[in-house]
Request: fold
Amino acid sequence: MSGGADAYETTIGLEIHVEMATNSKMFCGCPVAFGGEPNTRTCPVCLGLPGSLPVPNEKAVESTIKIGLALDCRIAERSLFHRKNYFYPDMPKNYQISQYDIPLCLQGAVDISGDFGSTRVGITRVHLEEDTGKSVHVGGSGRIGDSEYSLEDFNRAGTPLVEIVTEPDIHSADEAREFVSELRALLENLGVSDVRMEEGSLRVDANVSVRRIGEKEFGAKVEVKNMNSIRSVGRALEYEEKRQREALDAGQTLVQETRHFDEKAGTTSSGRLKEGSSDYRYFPEPDLVPFTPGDEWVETIRATLPETPAERRERFAAHYGLGEYDIGVLTSSKATADWFEAAAEVYTGEAKKVVNWITADLFGLLNEAGQELHETKIRPQQLARLVGLVDEGTISGKQAKLVLEEMFTSGEDADEVASKKGLSQVSDENLLAAAVDEVIAENADAADKVRGGQLNTIGFLVGQVMKKTRGQANPQIVNDLLRSKLSS
Reply:
């Protein structure tokens, strides 16, 4: 039976893995860093050699509690680690130290909104574990299926990893994309991770099921992996939702499985049948005792929580009078929001002007150079001064763009660049009046048209004054002088 898209309901739950920004691994002193020579950051503990004993990373536990508090979770009075048993080449011990039935944080929520309306997504649990190593499949497409052989790099094995599991409260790809975006901003704001999806610091798995409207039982749960950007999350889930609906329309039976997203093709493909929790044979980690986060420690951590992205958006609207679009761009990353605020603190004019110079001109230069905001030589205070020079009439907006380009290259102050390039704007009415009189006399026909009411001709006369002053006249003052002289 075929019912079309409106006949189905999609249910999505997300599992987000976040690598913690700690100096050392979860249970040993090996350093944490991205990349590097393979298998150079390992020791007997993270390799699981006989006789080695794990010691928990206090900073990682603290960061996990901080995440739980920011997600409005209940912090467990008692928690413990378990062994999650499975066999895969990137797991050196053949088990992972994780948490099972008593996670560190429980029952939180995140509010999201968009074209879909407003939704509260429940957080089932936030628990702490160790990351796996990295398999490198050589030959073919780089996937295990057609590779010639695989290599293992255990540098990442043992890195502190937090898993955030949502309730099945998400019902579209747009909602999932917005949730990941909001969570990513929150984690970055907390300073617990660099959340770089392209480097694997934040990884998203989605459990997707489709059922016909009115059915009580959920459809077969399909786990989608390999989504390495927020855009990929949306594309992968849109495809998977469509695939499942079309399969049901065709009378096919869906199975519980893991599927991988192909970024280039925009499709998912079957990987393996999905395990259940019983397949992992969890049991308490015998080398680690249970731990009890005391109320005093939890409240001390709570006191360090920064402003959330949602709170910052509200403040940007109230304090700076910015619109929803500008606020969304500025708060898309903590670095951008911090940079803007540093500029706005020293700029005395309308904050919207600073926003425009950041999002249009500065971002344009960054994109052209292939740089991130933190890499620019321009400091926020320097940009604020540049905008101030335009406000003062010292340089024109066109001149300011030339100044900004030089600042971007050299890192020099706006005043210094303007002086060096001989860029200044003449705003003295007495000096400009003579040039305006000359232009009126030299272009009598155009002047008569303005006197006759054809005000659009003023633009031509302004251009003639700019040419006569070699582009240094303040065009607004020139415009005002022309209107005054030709109306009398």
